[in-house]
Specification:
about 220 residues; alpha/beta; seven-stranded mixed beta sheet; globular; binds ribulose-5-phosphate; binds zinc ion; binds calcium ion; lyase
């Protein structure tokens, strides 16, 4: 399925990424942010239901100057500490800042979040290629799109959907800026089970890929 996931990422389709039984045990929708439409955001909030975030390649995050939230908020005394994340105590969360594009109104509508994500991808592309787009002239924080900064060693260090989605984008040769959202279960109050996420994929013709498959491909191909 990994080859199909790479192909679907290339084609701008939503793919379903499961992390690991030993980690969150969650499945996220993931789509390259430059292909994202307002229909995709609508589908994310209705069918997936989790938090809509945009994952960013570490190289671009570094160039743009996007901090980890845990670093930026340290002096408040509220920032997460080492070992705080129960399913991944060796790493901190990938959360960075939250942004809105300055041409949005409230920032939360499907149109607004789509504009924010699409333009984020332009900035990531520029940063990856040594360009000089001015981030702060186009985005403001706080906002309604959570940015996720992928680990600088990607899957060699951290194995969340942040890194899984960026690794797949790298393999696909597309701009490594991917909008993701967890699939939740309306009936149980929990994350949607792997089995149900796979069934959703089958029913809607979306590729489902597991972290194990991505990791095996990563270890053999990078
Ligand atoms: C943001 C999250 C999600 O779990 C998302 O999948 C990214 O986090 P991670 O890389 O840790 O899996 O917490 O909604
Ligand atoms: Zn999470
Ligand atoms: Ca996750």
């Amino acid at each position: 399925m990994i080859e199909k996931a790479i192909e679907a990422m290339k084609n701008g389709e939503i793919i379903l990424i499961y992390d690991f039984d030993s980690r969150e045990g969650e499945t996220d929708f993931a789509i390259r942010s430059d292909a994202l439409t307002r229909e995709d955001i609508c589908r994310m909030r209705k069918d997936a239901g989790g938090l809509i975030c945009t994952a960013i390649h570490p190289k671009a995050a570094e160039k743009i100057g996007l901090p980890f939230a845990s670093d930026a908020l340290r002096e408040t005394g509220f920032a997460e500490r080492d070992g705080d994340i129960p399913y991944d105590p060796k790493n901190h969360s990938s959360f960075s800042i939250w942004v809105n594009h300055k041409d949005t109104f409230t920032g939360i509508t499907d149109n607004d979040r789509t504009l924010t994500a699409n333009r984020l991808s332009d900035h990531v592309k520029s940063a990856m290629n040594g360009g000089k787009l001015n981030f702060s002239s186009e985005f403001r924080t706080p906002g309604h799109m959570a940015l996720l900064r992928a680990n600088e060693k990607l899957l060699d260090q951290r194995r969340g959907q942040t890194e899984l989605s960026i690794a797949i984008a790298e393999f696909a040769g597309v701009t490594p800026c991917v909008t993701i959202c967890e699939m939740l279960d309306d009936n149980t109050g929990k994350a949607l089970s792997k089995k149900d996420a796979m069934e959703y994929g089958k029913k809607h013709n979306l590729v489902f890929v597991s972290g194990d498959e991505v990791l095996e491909y990563w270890n053999n191909n990078h």
